[in-house]
């Protein structure tokens, strides 16, 4: 197979999250190793961001702005309570820790841009159980399930995930479903009752599996319906 022509990075896509809690869930929950986070000045705030995808040569970062920064982002869930905080040390074994890398200045190729002529192809599936089948297929290869991203679109919520149909980033597709129900932090499912997949706030029911749901501050800029 011929080698794909190399692409130059000409700017990054920064996608705002609803809160720092969403960043903690994205970077830590179910990951083999928490995502490294990059912290840098953005106006008067500190932007804390994780790169979670690459599309058509564009790195995709998900971020939350903060008034403070520290060495680690600590995350844990107990029952229906999720906690996230910025801390100086990774000393409490009950938390998962994402390292925070302080960047003096992001290089020009990773500066944010606003116009994206290339967008993900979108495929609407019938319901959340169908979406779970897309998000959970990687678990068959002992990999974490794909995260689901949620944002408002008019009177409904769009919940979807980015999945590649082959080894090339250009072949990524945004599979999504619409729902009137406001998504909570997780979708619970089981392999023998996939049709009963539902939004939940806790992740400790025996025999169940979970996919994280990450709320965006607004519509994803790389998605076009």
Topology at a glance:
Blueprint: E1 13-16, H1 20-28, E2 37-42, E3 45-55, E4 58-66, E5 72-78, E6 81-87, E7 96-102, E8 121-124, H2 128-136, E9 148-153, E10 156-164, E11 172-179, E12 186-189, E13 198-200, E14 209-215
Parallel strand pairs: 1-4, 2-7, 8-11, 9-14
Antiparallel strand pairs: 2-3, 3-4, 5-6, 5-7, 9-10, 10-11, 12-13, 12-14
**What percent of the residues sit in helical stretches (DSSP H or I)?**
under 10%
- Radius of gyration, in Å, reads 18 Å
If strands are numbered along the chain, what order do they take across the biggest sheet? 1-4-3-2-7-5-6
Terminal Cα span: 32 Å
Strand tally is 14
Number of helices: 2
- Topology as H/E string? EHEEEEEEEHEEEEEE
Shape: globular
Q: What is the mean pLDDT?
A: 90
Structural class: mainly beta
Major sheet characteristics? 7 strands, mixed
Q: What fraction of the residues are assigned to beta strands by DSSP?
A: 35-45%
Low-confidence stretches: 1-6
